[in-house]
Structure formats: C-alpha cells, structure tokens
Amino acid sequence: xxxxxxxxxxxxxxxxxxxxxxxxxxxxxxxxxxxxxxxxxxxxxxxxxxxxxxxxxxxxxxxxxxxxxxxxxxxxxxxxxxxxxxxxxxxxxxxxxxxxxxxxxxxxxxxxxxxxxxxxxxxxxxxxxxxxxxxxxxxxxxxxxxxxxxxxxxxxxxxxxxxxxxxxxxxxxxxxxxxxxxxxxxxxxxxxxxxxxxxxxxxxxxxxxxxxxxxxxxxxxxxxxxxxxxxxxxxxxxxxxxxxxxxxxxxxxxxxxxxxxxxxxxxxxxxxxxxxxxxxxxxxxxxxxxxxxxxxxxxxxxxxxxxxxxxxxxxxxxxxxxxxxxxxxxxxxxxxxxxxxxxxxxxxxxxxxxxxxxxxxxxxxxxxxxxxxxxxxxxxxxxxxxxxxxxxxxxxxxxxxxxxxxxxxxxxxxxxxxxxxxxxxxxxxxxxxxxxxxxxxxxxxxxxxxxxxxxxxxxxxxxxxxxxxxxxxxxxxxxxxx
Length: 482
What we know:
Blueprint: H1 2-13, H2 50-58, E1 60-64, E2 75-76, E3 79-80, H3 88-91, H4 96-99, H5 113-123, E4 127-133, H6 160-169, E5 173-179, H7 195-218, E6 224-228, H8 233-236, H9 239-252, E7 257-258, E8 283-287, E9 304-308, H10 329-341, E10 345-350, H11 360-376, E11 394-398, E12 404-408, E13 416-420, E14 425-432, E15 440-444, E16 447-451, E17 461-469, H12 471-481
Parallel strand pairs: 1-4, 1-10, 4-5, 5-6, 6-7, 8-9, 9-10
Antiparallel strand pairs: 2-3, 11-12, 12-17, 13-16, 14-17, 15-16
Helix pairs in contact: 5-6, 5-11, 7-9
C-alpha cells in the first residue's frame, strides 16, 4: 500500500518543469537545466484567483501567539530568560511532562473573542493569524487527536471557535498558524537516522494530518494556513508529505492559501525548490526583517509576507519587555509601509497574557495604527510596488488606478520631496489626503520636487500623485530595475 501511495503522490506533485510560463520568467533556468522534481513547486508564477487576490489586497494583518508559555511569561523557577517566551521550555530545559502540567493553570477568564475582534477591526487589520498549536503541542481547540488541549484544562472551552466566529462577524479573515514540530509527541524526530525513526515519524505525520483535517472540518471559513517548525532534517527528508498537505488543504478548503515554509522538495530545499521556484502561495521567510528597498527588488515579482515583533524576538507573552528593544509606534508603521511598498504584506504580532487580555502597550499600539489607517489606509489596502526609485524621505505605493502615494517619514530640511520617474511618466498633480493641493515643480527631465506643505505633522503623512504614463515604457523600466 505504501508503494502505491508514494507513486500516486509522485504523479500528483511532480513539478511542471516544462510549463510554458517558464519561457516568460527570466528568473528560471533554461528548460534543459531544470531538475525533474517529484515534490517541487506545483505552480509557476503568482496565483490570480479571487481568494489570492484578496490575500494580496488585504496587506495588513495581525499575528497572535498564545499558548501555555503565556503563564510563566519568560520566567522559570525564579530565572528570567531573555529569549523568545514561547521557547522557554527549550531555554530552561524543561521536560515535556513537566511543561504540560501548565495546563492545570490554563484558565483565561478575561478572554473575550468579541473584544479581540473589535480591537483588531479598529486597528485596521484585514486578517488575523492565530496560533492553533505552537511547538509545545498544546491545542487551543478541543482536538480529538491528543489530550493536550483546552478541553482538558480548567477553562475547558474551545478558544479557536469563538474567535473565528467573532472575526468572521467583523469581516476579518482568519488565518491559522500551525506548528508541525511538536515537543509533546513521542514520535516526533529531529532527524531520521534509522528505520525505526522513519516508522515513528510516519506515525507522527499521520497524527499531524489528522489535526489539520480536524481544523478544516471544525472551522471551514479559515482562509490561510501558516506553517512553522518545518526546518528540521526529518521534515526535509519527507518532502512528499509537505506536498500532500498543501494539496489536501486546498481540496478541503477551496481557495485557501498556504505559506512557503511548509514545503520541502526532493533534496530538502525549503521555500524555493532546487530549480529556484517558490513553493506554496507566498514567501514567508521574512521574519523580523524586510527586504532591502533598493537591492532586493526581485521580491516584487512574487507574493510575500513579513511578520514582525514589537519587542525584539518576543512573540509569546513575556512579562518583562525591558530585556529587549521595543519598537515605537512609528517604527511599526514604517515596517508596514515598507512591506507594501515592495509588494508584500505585513503582520504585526501580539502576545496575549495568560488571562486572555492584552497588555496596555499592545492596546495603545493597535489604537495608533488604527487611527493612522483610518485616515491614510488607501495607500496600504490594495496597493503595490510603484516602480519608482526609493527616496530618503520615505516610500511609494501604487493603487489599481495607477495613482501613486508618497508616504513621508523623513521630512527634508529643504522642504522639497524629490520624485524621480521613468521616461514616459509625468507627474500631473499632487494632493494631501484631505484633498488640499500641493505644489509640484519639474526640476529636470524625469525629476520633480513636491513641496512640503506649510503645516506641522505629528507623524508620517501622505501625498497622492496623479501621473500620466506611457505604460509600455514604464514596464520596460521596471523590468530593468528588477
């Protein structure tokens, strides 16, 4: 049976190495150099179906890391560990059985799914990623596959279900984080060094598949699966399973999106297969970092998503934020704009307390972002890479109508914002978001100065440019840039 199954998977997941799209993508190797892969990318180029288009247009999301690690909050037996709080079990070398006794204390009485959804709605996020299960193995839904679930805690109730319902009601898409690596399961292996290891790991993979099927069945409105904990050698040696899971999820939830870090190909390559083709629907390698806005323009050719923490490398709740650098509101906002300016999405992380409430700093950040997005969100939602040279004053984005936004973070002493455009494009008009016109001066061929208005800004501000462009010439310019 196993041999028949693997043969079927080989046929299902074989890379389309000779796909006609390859002839139009300069990043691909010539067809004769392509490796024949069983478990590589099963699509070349972007997805353009309605579900993927909505993912792309959403642009701003929130991440929620919540689990047993919120109870100790980075401290174990009187010692505070500066590393990521959700990794405390590893930092403090806590045995799995001892760690999972934290379930006896899990009782988030302040959790209110409706209030969470309202906070994120006011923040202006279009989707929320929630950790259904992190590396510790504790499930926030009442899974039938394991005893390590909310059902076996003092709280007893499902947490994922009410949150999905509340977010759906607010019109916010729900994304599921799922860690394949599971410290609670005896059959998990970091590497496969024997036949017994492989047998155990196959049992574990079957367990993981059942959990994913369960999530799809219980919460069919989910829009995305964001995988983590897939970097170990054991996963790299079982690329067939990652391919199978992507296919399975897309059959169970039509239109669902899947991040790149789930996948491994025949040779253990992750995110991008051995031919350089992205696996999954969007690249998710940008964790706490962003592509360079000048050197890394290749990312504008694909869908990608970055995720960021507010205190450096703290995802789950840590009781002491003074141990790491904490980004201020404008720094968080700049990272959101930076991502969109390069054609990507940005997800801002929150780590709820063990009681189910958010710390005051996170609530204040959500309020700040929401206030700015309410006034300026049109330069974020549905926007993309504008194809213009990066300037020191800030970033450009471009909407589907061809209007270009200048998001100003660094106001020059000259009070002149330089705008360089490709041949064939002209800046016709500039306005603030309130409609007030801003003076534009053409200084030389393909270069303009946009005048800073006589007013005081208390944060980043936006100018909308009306441009007239020769699309064919501009496309050639963008191709040269990338």
